Amino acid sequence: MTRQKKEIIKKIDDLEQWIEVDEELGCGFAPAGAYDETYREIDRLREELARLQHYANVEDMLYDTRGCENSGCPW
Prior knowledge:
Elements: H1 3-25, H2 36-52, H3 58-62
Helix pairs in contact: 1-2
């Protein structure tokens, strides 16, 4: 995996973790739409990651089952 892909994955993880922590510490009282921009950034990063991994779109990347035969994937 290239450095660029690793950085994108790390950034997505950081953003998702930030949302999770903010919701937990804020007791779930964030105003409507508080995370919309963050979710758009996550979607943009996933699109970029899919492109770098030569997938047509994010759905193809997320639902690719190659390599799951012995990894314990639920599907």
